[in-house]
């Protein structure tokens, strides 16, 4: 084996891993988003979770990606440990699809030209050609580009495999190579080799493919391959273990469940296989294994191990809990902002939406605190609760913004890019609502310390504008959290009513000042309070417009366009709000 053979071997390995990564990435981007949404909402029995784990992994062709997603969901508190067990077991079965695909390159295609072309080792060049044409003509069409990546990845995968096989052919005549695999017949040595190779390439599918390429030399026996394959299943756990570093307690436990499943499954298989070989013996034990034999044993191991541990899923959970001890751990509302989801932007956006929803709830809670205290001087002004919410709103704006900016927006489909933009707008508006609540809170503290109070008329007017702003904020938060354009549309005209209300209240209060019905200092505070309340409604208006336009697929966010295009409905709702709030201004205080 000369230097050129080594170069071809290394190049073939590089092409093989690149092809697998490209194909997996294209599949994940093309179909993964929908599957991950289903996976995220997976509830019910371990069997349903098992089927979902198989389906997701079979489609995206990466058990590591599925397991890392599961760790992320557990870290965010979306999935519990019992739910994740089934998905992890299913992912191990789903990943065997790759090795079954790789075996297709084996065998004689026959004399037919059509069969020769359809043989993967020949078809791969056609797929690469078609894939390049698709990408070149795709422009900004992400769907076509993903399809192109899948075709190119699949083709390059088999080109790399064929290159490795050709480079490894001379090894069959080297005695040292034969002796090397004789040593791997030692089960401990074989398992260690499988673990190390898989941990190095970060993919059991890739390491299985390398072993399948080596098997074409005819020098690898079943006795040498079996422990290596078992070790490869343990090695694939490294990716999930690394992804759980710094995660929550349960996320680390999820990665340990993956490790325990493969480790205990390997241990049971070693005991069973070598006990049978010692007492009865396999007729094929010292025979050469081929690609199909490797693929089949990989599938058998994962199927049998899954059947063993389905009824024992509680044991896996218990072992993980014993390994990762209970500790005092306060779950952060920002836990869903997990960088593990960056590979699947749709899921990352969904988690960001959850966090913005928490931010909105905190702003609404602070508004309720200050509005109650503003109307009732005896109502408690909970400083600790208010400051905690305000601090969270400020931190959330920064952290969610950083997380969103870390997303590869250029690679998102159009709808996701619009959602991404909407979220960046929304965090600013919710933070501003929090700021105006803080203005009211600070001014209210001074107002109370100076023992000031409003006249009956001013108090009555405050009740009305606070009720209007409270309704708008409550419905805005609900519309945003549920993505309901109907709720957003129903409340949008209320902002105009609040603007009119603010103008009327200013004029009426100036009249009271001129007539000496209230003090100047009280009057200035009143004007500042209603100004901040009106500003809160402005930001609510913006958020509702973003919600409406996102649901309608608007190309650009325009806070003035909705009123013009829905004037009749807008006027009808505005008339109802006017009767509810403006006409009650003249009621007795």
Helical residue percent band? over 70%
Distance between the termini: 99 Å
Largest pleated sheet: none
Strand content: under 5%
Overall radius of gyration? 32 Å
How many strand elements? 0
Outline type: elongated
Description:
By secondary structure, the chain is mainly α. 77% of the residues lie in helices and 0% in strands. It contains 25 helices and no strands. Helix 1 (3-40) runs antiparallel to helix 11, helix 3 packs antiparallel against helix 4 (81-94) and helix 11 runs antiparallel to helix 12. The N and C termini lie far apart (99 Å). The mean pLDDT is 80.
Please sum up the structure shown.
This protein has helices at residues 3-40, 46-60, 63-75, 81-94, 96-102, 113-118, 120-138, 142-168, 175-183, 187-201, 204-215, 222-235, 237-243, 249-279, 291-309, 313-323, 345-375, 383-405, 414-449, 456-482, 485-491, 494-514, 520-551, 561-565, 567-582. It has 589 residues and is mostly helical. Helix 1 (3-40) crosses helix 2 (46-60), helix 11 (204-215) packs antiparallel against helix 12 and helix 12 (222-235) packs across helix 15.
């Amino acid at each position: 084996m000369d230097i050129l053979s080594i170069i071809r071997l290394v190049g073939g390995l590089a092409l093989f891993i690149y092809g697998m990564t490209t194909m997996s990435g294209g599949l994940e981007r093309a179909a993964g988003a929908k599957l991950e949404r289903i996976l995220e909402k997976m509830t019910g029995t371990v069997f349903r979770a098992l089927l979902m784990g198989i389906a997701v992994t079979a489609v995206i062709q990466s058990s590591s990606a599925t397991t890392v997603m599961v760790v992320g969901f557990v870290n965010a508190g979306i999935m519990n440990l019992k739910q994740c067990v089934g998905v992890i077991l299913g992912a191990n079965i789903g990943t065997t699809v790759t090795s079954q695909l790789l075996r297709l390159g084996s065998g004689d295609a026959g004399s037919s030209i059509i069969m020769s072309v359809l043989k993967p080792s020949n078809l791969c060049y056609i797929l690469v050609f078609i894939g390049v044409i698709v990408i070149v003509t795709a422009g900004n069409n992400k769907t076509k580009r993903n399809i192109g990546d899948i075709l190119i990845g699949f083709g390059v995968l088999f080109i790399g495999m064929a290159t490795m096989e050709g480079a490894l052919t001379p090894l069959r005549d080297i005695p040292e190579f034969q002796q090397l695999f004789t040593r791997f017949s030692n089960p401990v040595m074989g398992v260690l080799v499988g673990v190390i190779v898989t941990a190095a390439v970060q993919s059991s599918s890739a390491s299985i493919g390398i072993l399948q390429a080596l098997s074409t030399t005819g020098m690898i026996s079943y006795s040498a391959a079996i422990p290596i394959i078992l070790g490869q299943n343990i090695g694939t756990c490294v990716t999930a273990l690394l992804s759980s570093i710094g995660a929550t307690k349960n996320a680390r436990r999820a990665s340990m469940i993956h490790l325990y499943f493969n480790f205990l499954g390997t241990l049971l298989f070693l005991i069973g296989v070598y006990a049978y070989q010692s007492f009865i013996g396999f007729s094929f034990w010292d025979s050469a294994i081929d690609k199909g034999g490797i693929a089949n044993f990989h599938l058998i191991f994962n199927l049998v191990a899954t059947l063993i541990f389905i009824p024992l899923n509680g044991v896996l959970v218990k072992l993980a809990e014993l390994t990762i001890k209970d500790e005092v751990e306060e779950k952060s509302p920002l836990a869903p902002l997990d960088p593990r989801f960056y590979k699947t932007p749709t899921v990352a956006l969904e988690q960001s939406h959850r966090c913005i929803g928490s931010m909105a709830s905190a702003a609404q809670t602070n508004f309720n605190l200050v509005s109650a205290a503003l109307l009732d001087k005896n109502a408690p002004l909970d400083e600790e609760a208010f400051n905690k919410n305000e601090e969270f709103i400020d931190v959330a704006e920064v952290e969610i913004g950083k997380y969103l900016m870390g997303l590869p927006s250029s690679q998102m489909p159009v709808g996701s890019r619009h959602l991404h933009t909407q979220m960046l707008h929304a965090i600013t508006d919710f933070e501003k609502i929090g700021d105006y609540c803080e203005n009211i809170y600070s001014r209210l503290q001074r107002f109370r310390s100076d023992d000031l109070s409003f006249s009956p008329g001013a108090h009555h007017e405050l009740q009305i504008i606070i009720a209007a702003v409270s309704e708008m904020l409550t419905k805005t938060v609900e519309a945003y959290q549920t993505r309901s354009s109907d709720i957003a549309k129903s409340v949008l005209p209320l902002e105009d009513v609040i603007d009119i209300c603010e103008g009327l209240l200013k004029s009426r209060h100036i009249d009271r000042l001129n007539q000496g019905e209230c003090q100047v200092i009280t009057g200035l505070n009143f004007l500042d309070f209603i100004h901040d309340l009106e500003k809160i409604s402005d930001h609510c208006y913006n958020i509702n417009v973003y919600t409406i336009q996102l649901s309608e697929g608007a190309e650009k966010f325009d806070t003035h366009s909705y009123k013009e295009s829905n004037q009749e409905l807008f006027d009808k709702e505005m008339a109802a709000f006017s009767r509810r709030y403006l006409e009650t201004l003249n009621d007795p205080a």
